Amino acid sequence: MSHLIPTPTYISFQHSRIMQLVLPLGSRRLTLGKYKPTISNTISIMSELLTKQSKLTAQLSKAYQTAGVLFEVLCAVNKTEKVEEVAPEIIAAARDVQEKTEIYTPFNILPLDSAGASQRIMQLEEIKAVVSALWDTRGLNWPTSIEQHRQKDLDLLDWLGAMFGFQRDNVRNQREHLILLLANSHIRLHPKPEPLSKLDDRAVDAKMKDIFKNYKNWCKFLGRKHSLRLPQAQQEIQQRKLLYIGLYLLIWGEAANIRFMPECLCYIFHNMAYELHGLLAGNVSIVTGENIKPSYGGDDEAFLRKVITPLYRVIEKEAKKSRNGMAPHSSWCNYDDLNEYFWSPDCFSLGWPMRDDGEFFKSTSDMTQGRKGAPRKSGKTGKSNFVETRTFWHIFRSFDRLWTFFILGLQVLLIIAWDGISLMDIFQTDVLYNLSSIFITASILRLLQSMIHSLMWLLITHSYHSSILLSRSLVKEFLLTILIILLVKVA
């Protein structure tokens, strides 16, 4: 791989070649046709140098990153061997590596460090537009731990990471993720935005709609107002939207196995977005009289340690109870079972910051059953959330649409056989009128399914609030059934 790294001698040699080719052009008046090959050769040499410089930058980035890790290992070994001091020359070298690491930062697709600004992908107008929007940090109050001179080099995701305690590598990855998402949406707009170098609000709104669709449906189901609150000032709206999108991506980036519990992520985002709004609005705490701060603080890796780790331990505990899939399904919780807890308004009793003695964190073997907290009887399952008892009745519940189709098909065949009509006469008015009764049957089946579903939910969760939420669908199906019956009679 040594031939990929342009050494200083190589670069100096190539520079002298370029100067030898370029100087004659300025010393005398020459025709373009005569020196066209010379110009083409010069351009190709410069392109070769830029390519080698790009490869050199990537390799330097990896080298400095490796050196930083090795220094951390050295410090850890010294502590293990009870060696208190590190050699001064090593400390000096580590400081130099730290400074160079900030210049040659690792990247996946976009070289966002100062050394990669000249690369072609960073010259695209849509990339420039998103980068410029993310670096607009006007009006944000930075924590005191970040020096004043460093704030100008940081963006919105750096601010979120500093305020809510996200990992630096997560911030770096999600920055690239967000830039590429917005750039792709920005360049595909029709009509094209003018100017192209400014991020269009339509691109941001499209990503807001895609990312927060499930979150808004979750809030609507639980009867809660979402936390996506926008400021009155028009010039601050785009910045606020980018902060909300960045916050969700940062949560998702560190969620680990919690990603398999999307409604749990909605609960986390709901509370953190509310805190974000309080930070930006300058709300004052009633208890302390000071400005509202994030509940879990902005310490390094605070989000991972204080939010994700407790939730992950619940999943880990339930996974051990499964005995590698050999235990009965009703004796342990999988991802869906645990996620069902966040489909109920009872999840808000968990609070924010989340209470350690909350129902979700209790051991399932110690859980009580019933609305009044009666001790669990023998023979009952010990699951704290959704209880899925697998019986042959699940064939009817899980494949309800298939059975509905069979029943409606049987009704059509009975009508045709009872009236003794042929298939050629099926489009006659009186025949179609009789066949339209299948819509009444379908509505009644849907109403019956909603009733059974609401009753099952009440028996499982022992919560009247959840039953009330599901009664909405029950009322909707009932009204739909009445409407279809009236339409059939009018016809």
From TrEMBL:
Under the heading SMART domains, the entry gives: FKS1_dom1 (SM01205)
**All copies of domain 1,3-beta-glucan synthase component FKS1-like, residue ranges:** 239-355
- Single GO term (MF): glucosyltransferase activity
Write out the GO cellular component annotations: plasma membrane
InterPro entries, A to Z: FKS1-like_dom1 (IPR026899)
Q: Which residues cross the membrane?
A: 402-419, 431-448, 469-488
Query: What are the alphabetically sorted keywords of the record?
Result: Membrane, Transmembrane, Transmembrane helix
Q: What is this protein called?
A: Putative 1,3-beta-glucan synthase
